[in-house]
Design a protein that fits this description.
The structure holds three protein chains of three kinds. By secondary structure, chain A is mostly helical. Helices cover 73% and strands 3% of the residues of chain A. In chain A, 59% of the residues are buried. By secondary structure, chain B is mostly helical. Chain B has one domain. In chain B, a hairpin with a 4-residue loop joins β1 and β2. The radius of gyration of chain B is 21 Å and the shape is globular. By secondary structure, chain C is mainly α. A two-stranded antiparallel sheet of chain C has the order 1-2. The longest helix of chain C has 32 residues. Classes of the chains: A mainly alpha, B mainly alpha, C mainly alpha. Chains in contact: A-B, A-C, B-C.
Chain lengths: 642, 488, 487
């Protein structure tokens, strides 16, 4: 069994090989060969992951360690690179390779004809490899390798069309913001080492469990990991890069900026669940960051007009939900939402990509509408995804989101930190989600056709290489939720599955069945209110209300992304640039000059010394005489004194 | 009443004797010669013979014991004989440099070479002097010849001025020296170092102040010859004005003799005087280091820069003198050996670049030398870097030995002053290197070829490099045998 | 055996000096012969016996070389970098190529000497020996303002090193050591009185801080790099020559532990400040070479951070980072030379969009840039990580400050890439040529080697690290750091 599980260790290697082949020889290949190679390498990885998954399910052990090779050495001991395959990491691997495979296949159609075709697939493969490393790592250090690796791949792919300055800028911004989070990760690791003496994740978890509940050093470690997580998962205050990241090709947005990389923060916190479970303060910080992010991002999503940016803010908002889940101590719930979200959000992005593809690059929803008639598969699947994310009962999003709401309301871990307020926020946000997602669907697929007439005739459904992944994802978006039905009344497979990996002493209030049903009811109401309001505003009211509100302050605030970019520009970017150029001139003008000025007396003295040499014999004789007289004086003085 | 017969140990002064005889022979020879070539060859022969005698002496001294003569008035111990080598090398190189130079500069008179030999002979006497009278004798033999040599370029204002300044100031300094000797004699009743020291150390000696003043005046007289500030001011002018080979000779041989004399006095007489002498000398050294190096910094003429640098090097030698008696003597000999090679080498290169009147040593003329005359430029680079104390050249090892000596003697502050001034020195030495290599040629240089000078350059380059890489050999030789100090 | 890594380059240099008239291929062959054979010897160096013979009696200076521990690692990595450097120089230096290569190899001989010397004065000898080639390379082949740069560099370097010499020479008489050999000094110098240790340590610090360099003694560095030959070859030599960290590691810290414990906290502040200061300045540079100069200065700050934390992990990491940055910074300078050949300028405003016409060049540049900014899995990361971690033990706040440089590094890294290869496309340029590919392959190999398997080299470095850790904190148990792995 262990051997079968270990097979999964080859998944990142396969992706890496795919990337290498495409990177070295890709330019010599003809389309679609690079895409096929890349898809196959991920596809086989998916198969291996499935095998490993079932092997783990069938076997006794819940965790398999694979040591690769020794890495660092300090003091008596060395750190080896190794994988830890457990239930959590295998589930993540399934998501990454599974959804990844579909998106690879989809990309063969989407990137058709692009001059960077092979470069694109190299980047995508490399990303999968790095992401797999991240989730498979048994130590924080190797996880950090993947952590930075996915950041780099994201950078490469956001700036894929690099000749457009905007794209390159977006890529740079994503990288730098991520780098801030990475610095947090580094500091977290340092503190971990100095506290626990190890970077092995399981060892840290065990040691953390043994520490005093609520110890302050744990809190600081937790906050530092939270900083890291906010960077990668685009949470407040580091959320600003994700909307810009939409500059990359749409499948990239689907894979990296919706389904996988951005969930790394959630994964990280779930991975160190025992640590966070010991520190309510840090956990509360996670939850509140998530809650506020969810609310604000949803608010911003109201007014966006770019088909992808709406989805980007929606992603940020949904990630906020996940943060709340892992913040309140419901770690499996967070992963559950990662799981369901991966399907419907990837589907939404791919649907959007299909639309952009059909409209020759158009991304503004104000110039769309009524596309559902022309693109039946895309329209239908997107509808399913929209309903799923909106939290319509019986679809996957409903189950995972409801689980988050329920656990927030009943959390004991952060009971002192206002979990009920958080619950209310999430409930409102859930309604808002349903509303803006309705708007999204309506503006794109329903209502009147606002795109240019000349496009109408060429309008077509995407090729099957693109639609097939849509269909598969749609099926998953419907079914994925049934793996995690409400525990109080139904079998819950995913909670049970993840239990050994995220086991903590965190407990939740035990509610009566009727109260549980009430909570579910509230969730349903929220979704219904959101959707109903959307229907009223956009279908019945035809957007007149919206048009009137267009100039209100709230609308402006929403459009500007809550003013974060402007704020950061004013508070961080410009001062930083100013500091940099200021320091630069300080360096050349003050430090350098200062040191040179320190040497200038030497020059003066030198000129003075040269002047002493007058050339006159009498002066020289005088100098000698003075010298001798001084000698005599010194001797006689010493005589007098003694 | 017994009358002690003269205690003359002829073996002890064979080298200076050979030089004296050669000089006499050469003068006779010169009566029948227009050109100096034959006298030069004769002088070289004499120098080689002297060197052979010296070598023999060295072997004997290393294996058995030092020689003395005239009681303790003439000492041929390891340091003295080693100094003889330095003097001989410096003289040979100066002769080689002069060989074609004199003709080229229209200064060729056969009397030139005997004078050089006489001066070297005087230097050797100074080195071996074990009493104040012998010291004075050697000093005057050496100096009188050099006064003439430095004014050798008749009709040239600079050269005559150089000779005149050197002579007058030299006389002035000699006066101090003589007066100092008188005072020391007056205080102790002896001329011989060992005896003076014995009296000073004896019970009930109450003339310490007088003796100290005498010591100070002797110090001033010797400091003049060694070009230590404030008695150094003649040096830059004399070095600049004299014909280049004479400059090379003066800056090396005269300095070696003066330092040797200082070392011996510092290790025998001075320790028993008031500690003031040492302190005053330390101040002189510091002053020399500072003034010599700083004044060299902005000189445009390379010859003048080297003249100041020669003053500065007297300061470094002074550091070793402070530690005289222990490792200082060996360090000073080693340093002087290296200094002789690199300094004469530098002047030799200069003599092939400057015009026949020794003008045109401006820094600008060296622009692009690395292109035009790669060999000369490389050689000059070696000399300058060695003078600057950059490893692995001889000057570096010399610097280590000298500074080690000073630090061992506890002169930390002085060492730091010396090192800081070395930084200044690196700047002015390296400036010449920079001009040679970093700039394009600007001037047409005279095509001068002289196998004799080239030979001198080759020898000095080889010496500078080899001594730098294998410093242990020469130092090992110096360690053998022993040094005669006060009181035997 | 040990001496050969010094002799081979020296002898090759001698031949190269006289190869000006020969065919360029002869020079290239000679350059490769010298560097490759040195590298091959260096591969077998670890574990071979050293040598020790009396060099200067009287003051007891020994010609003692030994390839133990960290010495062999640095020699090995420097020798690796020298191969592409010499190769590229043979193709890119137009004037007096033979002399240039000869100076480069003398430089290598001196560097190897610095790393291998086990006698304090011998160490100084090699320290100064390397100064001349680097000055000559800058002065003869440098840019229009080279003379000021030479002067500045000369004064900084010489002031520092000469003062250090005083400290060195005082060490033996004051401590009564039998010789200047490391082992003899180590036996007695740690027992010197605190005051003596302090002033000698400060003199050492002056020289090492200039060469490290540490703020504020770094200002020769940007000019030095800006004015060097545009091929970047001399800059690589300059990069290898950042031996101040080594000086602290091999000499100052172990010999004067008492002073180290007092001064290190101050130096730690300076180093952390340097790391951030330089990285921030690098973000605003518009000249490629100056940017790289500041970037490399920032790395040196991190080296200092590792050293002055005086913690086992950081000390090892600092030396590892020193080795790694030879490859990464060296690689970047070589790439700058390749870019200059295409555009004839280092002004970043003249570049843009080159990724399209030169995708391979772009890919390699990005790879090396990522190495340089400390992306894990690549050469710089292990050292950077361990340096910061070590400092974190000493002072979490300063380590956190230094960690900020990671962010700034990200900024200048991607800024640089964007300005060169992205945005509006400028005049197309040629992609990598054969020579350039040959030059870059060893660099890339080195980056992967050092990045993926730092274990063996760290193990070697630690042999020496332990000496410092033991002398600096005698009696205290050496902190055992478990970085993962199951005990």
């Amino acid at each position: 069994m262990t051997d079968l599980i270990s097979l999964a260790a080859f998944a990142p290697l396969l992706a890496l090989i795919g990337a290498l082949v495409n990177g070295l020889f890709g330019r010599a290949f003809r389309e679609p060969l690079p895409g096929v190679i890349a898809s196959l390498s991920v596809g086989i990885g998916f198969l291996l992951s499935i095998i490993a998954f079932f092997a783990l399910a069938a076997g006794e052990e819940t965790r398999v360690s694979i040591t690769l090779w020794p890495y660092l050495q300090a003091g008596s001991f060395e750190l080896s690179l190794g994988f830890a395959l457990d239930r959590l990491s295998l589930l993540m691997m399934l998501i990454i390779t599974g959804v990844g495979f579909l998106i690879h296949v989809y990309s063969i159609g989407y990137m058709h004809g692009d001059e960077g075709f092979s470069r694109y697939f190299m980047g995508l493969n490399l990303f999968v490899a790095a992401m797999l490393l991240l989730v498979m790592a048994d130590s924080f250090l190797l996880m950090f390798v993947g952590w930075e690796g996915v950041g780099i791949c994201s950078y490469l792919l956001i700036g894929f069309w690099y000749r457009e300055k905007l794209n390159a800028d977006a890529a740079r911004k994503a990288f730098i913001v991520n780098r801030i989070g990475d610095a947090g990760f580094l500091l977290a690791m340092f503190l971990t080492v100095t506290t626990f003496g190890t970077l092995d994740i399981q060892a840290v978890n065990e040691a953390a469990g043994a520490l005093v509940f609520g110890s302050s050093v744990l809190g600081v470690i937790g906050l530092l990991y939270l900083l890291a997580a906010t960077g990668k998962s685009a949470q407040l205050p580091l959320q600003v890069w994700l909307p810009d990241a939409m500059a990359g090709p749409t499948p990239v947005s689907a894979l990296i900026h919706a389904a996988t990389m951005v969930t790394a923060g959630v994964y990280l916190i779930a991975r160190v669940a025992p640590l966070f479970a010991q520190t309510p303060a840090a956990s509360a910080a996670v939850a509140w960051v998530g809650g506020l992010t969810a609310l604000i991002a949803a608010f911003i999503a109201f007014s966006q007009t770019d088909i992808k940016k709406i989805l980007a803010y929606s992603t940020i908002s949904q990630l906020g939900f996940m943060f709340v889940a892992v913040g309140v101590g419901a770690y499996w719930v967070g992963i559950f939402h990662v799981f369901t979200h991966a399907f419907f959000k990837a589907l939404l992005f791919l649907g959007a990509g299909s639309v952009i593809h059909a409209l020759a690059g158009e991304q503004d929803v104000r110039r769309m509408g009524g596309l559902g008639k022309h693109m039946r598969v895309t329209g239908t699947t997107s509808l399913i995804a929209t309903l799923a994310i909106a939290g319509v009962p019986l679809l996957s999003g409903f189950f995972s989101k409801d689980a988050i709401l329920a656990h927030t309301a009943t959390s004991e871990l952060i009971a002192d930190y206002g979990n009920l307020v958080l619950y209310a926020i999430l409930l409102v946000t859930a309604a808002m989600t349903a509303f803006y997602m309705f708007r999204w669907y309506h503006r794109v697929f329903a209502g009147e056709e606002r795109f240019p007439k000349k496009l109408r005739d060429s309008l077509h459904e995407s090729p099957s290489v693109m639609t097939l992944p849509l269909v598969i994802l749609a099926v998953c978006s419907v079914l994925a939720g049934y793996l995690g039905l409400p525990e109080f009344a139904f079998p819950n497979w995913i909670a049970h599955w993840l239990e050994p990996s995220v086991e903590t002493p965190v407990s939740f209030l035990h509610l009566s069945t009727s109260l549980e049903w009430l909570l579910i009811g509230l969730s349903v109401v929220a979704a219904a209110v959101g959707l109903g309001l959307g229907y009223w505003v956009y279908e019945r009211n035809r957007g007149r209300l919206v048009a009137r509100l267009e100039e209100s302050m709230l609308a402006r605030l929403s459009r500007s992304g809550f003013g974060f970019d402007a704020l950061y520009r004013a508070v961080f970017v410009e001062p930083a640039e100013g500091t940099a150029s200021g320091l630069s001139s300080v360096d050349t003008d003050i430090v350098d000059r200062g040191l040179r000025a320190g040497a200038s007396p030497v020059g003066l003295l030198a000129r003075a010394a040269a002047l002493l040499q007058s050339g006159y014999l009498r002066a020289y004789a005088l100098a000698m005489l003075i010298g001798v007289l001084v000698f005599a004086l010194i001797v006689s003085l010493s005589g007098v004194l003694s | 009443m017994t009358f002690p017969g003269p205690d003359i140990n002829w073996v002890a002064f064979t080298p200076p004797l050979v030089l004296l005889l050669t000089a006499a022979l050469a003068v006779l020879f010169a009566l029948y010669q227009e050109s100096g070539r034959l006298t030069a060859q004769l002088s070289l022969l004499g120098l080689v013979v002297a060197a052979l005698f010296n070598l023999h002496l060295f072997q004997v001294v290393r294996q058995t014991d030092a020689f003395t003569s005239f009681g303790l008035r003439y000492l041929a111990d390891t340091p003295a004989i080693a100094f003889n080598f330095v003097i001989l090398i410096g003289t040979v190189l100066a002769v080689l440099m002069s060989y074609h130079y004199l003709e080229r500069a229209d200064l060729d008179h056969p009397e030139y070479y005997p004078l050089i030999l006489l001066s070297a002979c005087g230097a050797m006497v100074m080195v071996a002097a074990g009493d104040l009278i012998t010291l004075l004798l050697g000093l005057e033999i050496m100096s009188l010849a050099v006064y003439v040599l430095s004014a050798w370029r008749q009709g040239s204002r600079e050269s005559e001025e150089a000779g005149m300044k050197y002579f007058l100031l030299g006389a002035f300094a000699s006066a101090f020296l003589v007066y100092g000797i008188a005072l020391l004699y007056g205080a102790s009743g002896h001329f011989v170092y060992a005896e003076i020291a014995a009296v000073l150390r004896g019970d009930g000696f109450d003339q310490l102040l007088l003796a100290t003043l005498g010591g100070m005046l002797v110090l001033a007289g010797l400091a003049f010859k060694a070009a230590l500030a404030p008695f150094h001011q003649w040096a830059p002018d004399a070095y600049t004005g004299a014909p280049t080979p004479v400059t090379a000779f003066m800056s090396v041989v005269v300095k070696a003799a003066a330092i040797a004399a200082l070392l011996r006095i510092f290790s025998s007489v001075f320790p028993d005087l008031s500690p003031l002498v040492g302190q005053v000398f330390a101040v002189l050294v510091a002053l020399t280091l500072v003034l010599g190096n700083l004044a060299a910094l902005f000189q445009r003429g390379v010859k003048r820069m080297l003249a100041y640098s020669a003053v500065a090097h007297a300061g470094y030698l002074g550091l070793a003198v402070l530690a005289a008696g222990t490792v200082g003597t060996r360090a000073a000999i080693w340093y002087l050996t290296a200094y002789t090679l690199m300094n004469v080498g530098a002047f030799a290169v200069l003599s092939l670049i400057a015009d026949r009147n020794d003008r045109g040593d401006d820094l600008e003329r060296f622009a692009g030398l690395g292109r035009m005359k790669p060999g000369l430029a490389a050689a000059l680079t070696v000399f300058l870097l060695s003078l600057a104390g950059i490893p692995p050249l001889a000057g570096f090892t010399g610097k280590i030995l000298v500074f080690q000596a000073a630090l061992q003697a506890g002169y930390v502050a002085l060492a730091i002053i010396g090192i800081v001034m070395s930084v200044v020195a690196v700047v002015y030495y390296f400036r010449v290197v920079a001009v040679m290599y970093f700039r394009e040629p600007e001037y047409e240089l005279p095509a001068i070829s002289s196998w004799a000078t080239s030979m001198a350059i080759v020898v000095t380059v080889a010496g500078t490099v080899l001594l730098g890489i294998f410093p242990g050999w020469w130092y090992g030789l110096l360690q053998a045998g022993r040094q005669l100090l006060a009181g035997m | 055996m040990t001496l050969t890594v010094i002799l081979i380059p020296l002898i090759t240099a001698l031949f190269l000096f006289f190869s000006e008239a020969a065919d360029p291929l002869v020079r290239r062959f000679l350059g490769l012969l010298g560097t490759v054979s040195t590298f091959l010897v260096a591969l077998y160096l670890p574990g071979t016996p050293g040598m020790s013979s009396l060099w200067l009696p009287g003051v007891n200076v020994y010609f003692a070389l030994s390839p133990d521990g960290a010495s062999a690692v640095l020699v090995l990595v420097a020798s690796l970098v020298m191969i592409p450097t010499a190769l590229y120089a043979s193709g890119r230096v137009e004037r007096r190529t033979g002399s240039f290569l000869a100076l480069l190899l003398i430089m290598q001989a001196g560097l190897n000497g610095i790393f291998l010397a086990k006698d304090l004065i011998l160490f100084y000898l090699f320290w100064e020996l390397t100064l001349i080639p680097s000055l000559m390379m800058l002065g003869i082949w440098g840019g229009t303002k080279r003379r000021q740069a030479v002067q500045k560099y000369l004064i900084y370097a010489v002031t520092g090193s000469f003062l250090m010499l005083v400290g060195m020479l005082a060490l033996r008489p004051l401590s009564g050591a039998a010789s200047y050999r490391l082992e003899d000094l180590l036996a007695v110098t740690p027992a010197l009185p605190a005051g003596t240790q302090l002033w000698i340590f400060l003199l050492f610090t002056l020289a090492f801080a200039v060469k490290l360099p540490l703020w504020p003694l770094h200002s020769w560095l940007p000019d030095f790099h800006e004015q060097n030959h545009p091929s970047g070859v001399a800059d690589v030599a300059g990069t290898l020559y950042k031996v101040g960290g080594w000086g602290f590691f091999a000499w100052a810290l172990p010999l004067l532990p008492g002073a180290a414990a007092v001064v290190a906290p101050v130096l730690l502040v300076l180093a952390a400040f340097t790391a951030v200061y330089a990285a921030v300045i690098a973000t605003s540079q518009t000249n490629l070479k100056r940017l790289l100069a500041y970037a490399s200065l920032s790395h040196m700050g991190l080296v200092g951070v590792g050293l002055f934390g005086l913690h086992l992990t950081g000390l090892s990491g600092a030396i590892y980072l020193l080795a790694a940055q030879m490859v990464s910074t060296g690689g970047l300078f070589l790439l700058s030379g390749m870019l200059y050949e295409r555009r004839k300028t280092f002004e970043l405003s003249e570049y843009g969009g080159l990724s399209r016409s030169a995708p391979a060049l772009a890919a390699v540049t990005l790879f090396v840039l990522f190495t340089s900014i400390g992306v894990p899995g690549l050469a710089n990361f292990p050292g950077e990580f361990m340096s910061l971690l070590g400092a974190f033990h000493a002072s979490p706040w300063l380590a956190a400050l230094a960690t900020l440089s990671v962010i700034a590094a990200g900024v200048y890294g991607v800024n640089l890439y964007q300005r060169l290869y992205q945005d509006r496309e400028t005049q197309p340029v040629a992609d990598l040529r054969e020579l350039e590919l040959a030059v870059l392959v060893p660099i890339l190999a080195g980056i992967l080697w050092l990045g993926l398997a730092p274990g063996p080299q760290l193990e070697r470095i630690e042999v020496q690290t332990r000496i410092i850790a033991q002398t600096v904190q005698p009696g205290e148990e050496i902190p055992m750091v478990t970085l993962g792995g199951r005990p």
